[in-house]
Design a protein that fits this description.
Elements lengths: L1 E2 L11 H11 L7 H7 L3 E6 L8 E5 L4 H10 L2 E5 L4 H13 L4 E5 L16 E8 L3 E5 L7 E5 H9 L10 E5 L10 H14 L7 H11 L3 H4 L3 H13 L9 H11 L6 H30 L2 H26 L10
Antiparallel strand pairs: 1-6, 2-3, 4-9, 5-6, 5-9, 6-7, 7-8
Protein name: Lantibiotic ABC transporter
Pfam families: BtrH_N (PF14399), DUF4872 (PF16169)
InterPro entries: BtrH_N, DUF4872
Length: 335
C-alpha cells in the first residue's frame, strides 16, 4: 500500500475547490473554500440547452479546470498537468506521484465511482488522490460524497477513460507553492476584476448576465419542455442548491469570498459588490424553490415568478459586477 503522509482530508462543498484545498494544504497554504473559488475567478453563468439534451441546464461557474488554471495563475503557483490516451500511462503518472509522497488531482467522470450515490454522467468531476493498494484507491471528494472515500482501481480506470462532454484524457495535476507564500493583497483585486469583465462581456447570449436574462425568458416554458416535470424540474433545482454549488448556484461561495476580501481591501466598490451578491444569493435560492414547486404542482405561475426573479437577478448581478470591475481603478482600491 502507498499513501501520502500528513494529508488533511477536510471535505468542502465543491469538487474542484475541495481538491485544490487538499493539494495546497499539503504544502502549507491553507485558504478557505470561498477564497479558493474567488481567486479562481470561478463565478459565471450559463444557460445550456440543445436538441439532444433531455432538459436545460443552468450552470453557475466557469468550465471544469478553468478555475484551477485561474487560481494558480493569479497566485503565481506552478501547475503541472499530465494527460494521455493510454490507461496504463495514466495510472503510472499518478502512482509515481503518490509513491513520491505527493497528492494528485484527477479529472474524471463521477458516474463510474463506486461511492457516488447519484449515478449521473459528469466528466468534469475533480477529486484528490492520496493513496492506493492492490485493489482500491483513496480519494478526497466533497462533503456530500463522504469526504475521505475509496473506490476500486477498476472503477477509477473507467472514470478516467470516459469520453463525452467535459471529459479529459486521464488528466492528473499537481500544484507547487513557492517557498515564500503569495500575499493575497492585490491578487484578490486581479481575480475579481477578471471575473467581472468576463461576466459583463460574454461572447454569446447564453453566458453571464445576458444568460441569466435568457434563462428568465426560457424558464417560463419549462413545463412544456419536459414530459416528466415531477422528475426534471426538482432535479434542476437540486443541481442549483445541492450539487456541489455551496447553495444558490455558487452565489453563496462568491458572497463569502467578497466578505473575506473586505478584510483585505478597503473599497466602497467591493462593499457594494458584496451587498448585492448577498441579495442575489437569497434570490437564487428562491428561484430554485419555485422551480421545484412548479415540477411538483404543475403550476406554471411558479415558473412565471421564477422568470421575474431571474430578470431582477440579471440586473442585480450586472450592477454588482460593474461595481467590482472598478476595483482596479486608482480611486477604487486602497490596500
Amino acid at each position: 500500500m502507498a499513501e501520502v503522509r500528513d494529508i488533511d482530508v477536510r471535505a468542502q462543498q465543491h469538487c474542484e475547490t475541495t481538491t485544490l484545498g487538499v493539494l495546497l494544504r499539503h504544502q502549507g497554504l491553507d485558504l478557505s473554500e470561498p477564497m479558493l473559488f474567488g481567486l479562481g475567478a470561478g463565478l459565471s453563468f450559463v444557460y445550456w440547452d440543445s436538441r439532444n439534451m433531455g432538459f436545460p441546464f443552468l450552470g453557475g461557474r466557469v468550465k471544469p479546470f478553468e478555475l484551477t488554471r485561474n487560481l494558480t495563475r493569479t497566485l503565481g503557483l506552478e501547475l503541472t498537468v499530465q494527460e494521455t490516451t493510454s490507461p496504463r500511462r495514466g495510472w503510472e503518472n499518478v502512482a509515481a506521484l503518490i509513491d513520491a509522497g505527493r497528492p494528485v488531482g484527477l479529472q474524471l467522470d463521477s458516474y463510474h465511482l463506486d461511492y457516488f450515490t447519484s449515478k449521473v454522467r459528469f466528466g468534469g468531476h475533480v477529486v484528490a488522490m492520496y493513496g492506493y493498494d492492490d485493489h482500491d484507491v483513496h480519494l478526497v471528494d466533497t462533503a456530500q460524497q463522504g469526504g475521505a472515500v475509496s473506490t476500486s482501481r477498476a472503477s477509477l480506470a473507467k472514470a478516467r477513460a470516459a469520453r463525452g462532454p467535459m471529459t479529459a484524457r486521464h488528466r492528473s495535476f499537481t500544484v507547487t507553492v513557492p517557498h515564500d507564500p503569495p500575499s493575497l493583497h492585490g491578487r484578490v483585486v486581479s481575480a475579481i476584476t477578471v471575473c467581472a469583465d468576463a461576466f459583463l462581456h460574454p461572447p454569446i447570449a447564453n453566458l453571464g448576465h445576458r444568460g441569466i436574462e435568457k434563462a428568465g425568458e426560457r424558464v417560463r416554458g419549462w413545463l412544456r419542455r419536459t414530459d416528466d416535470p415531477r422528475r426534471d424540474l426538482p432535479q434542476a433545482a437540486l443541481l442549483m442548491e445541492k450539487a456541489g454549488t455551496g447553495g444558490a448556484l455558487f452565489r453563496n461561495l462568491y458572497r463569502d469570498f467578497l466578505a473575506e476580501c473586505t478584510q483585505l481591501v478597503d473599497s466602497g466598490h467591493l462593499r457594494t459588490g458584496h451587498r448585492l451578491y448577498a441579495e442575489a444569493a437569497t434570490l437564487w435560492t428562491q428561484v430554485a424553490a419555485l422551480i421545484a414547486e412548479a415540477g411538483e404542482s404543475g403550476d406554471a405561475r411558479c415558473l412565471a415568478q421564477a422568470g421575474g426573479i431571474l430578470h431582477d437577478l440579471s440586473r442585480l448581478e450586472r450592477e454588482a459586477m460593474e461595481a467590482l470591475s472598478l476595483l482596479g481603478s486608482r480611486s477604487g482600491t486602497r490596500c
